[in-house]
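Agenda item 2: zinc ion complex prediction
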Amino acid sequence: MEQTKGGPDRRIGRRALIIGGAAAAVGTGALLARDELSRMWWQVPGVDKPRVEGAVDYTGARWVAASSANWRRADRPADYTVDMVIVHVTQGSFDSAVQVFQDPGHGAASHYIVRDDGHITQMIRELDVAYHAGNREYNERSVGIEHAGFVDRPQDFTDAMYAASARLTAGICARYGIPVDREHIIGHVEVPGTDHTDPGEHWDWDRYMRLVRRAGTGSTPA
Ligand SMILES: [Zn+2]
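Presented output:
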């Protein structure tokens, strides 16, 4: 606590403070603007984020819109913290997954679908809440990635699919500051209350996590 208020030294101090204060006010404004500029626009709460028709969040993904019945408009990560990636397997072909996510009667869809050749289709913006986890809280906090294939067909999980999906997940983790670990990159089967088993026992988590880490650091995956 300051004990010596009002003395001669204090008056000088106050004048200096007032002069300094005017300069500080200008400086604060400039600092604030610079601070805002240095933040990525989508991290600033309350900003009505611009949306461009057909825009994707991951370079290289192709946009195909899911039915609006299969997701909810949001403003993530301003309204919900995104701290998870959830890995799925479609239990069907790539084309059938794209088709059902466009069907308003399906009631579910993920943000991305990865094909066996490494092609990635984005169907829901990361801003928005996709209905993929069967758990409201987990939907709100996660990005969902489907992998075309069947849980009991390990041959469906190709090298190209692992590599493409790992790059996608590494990008998501970098965008939202998500730790690259199995607490934050989980399978649908690990979502509380789910009766889904995907991605199943043949999904190679050790390999996948290694690829995600390497994609995140920019070094070449082995
Ligand atoms: Zn699933």
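Discussion summary: The pocket of zinc ion is lined by residues 88, 188, 196, 198 (CB under 6 Å).
Owner for follow-up: CH.
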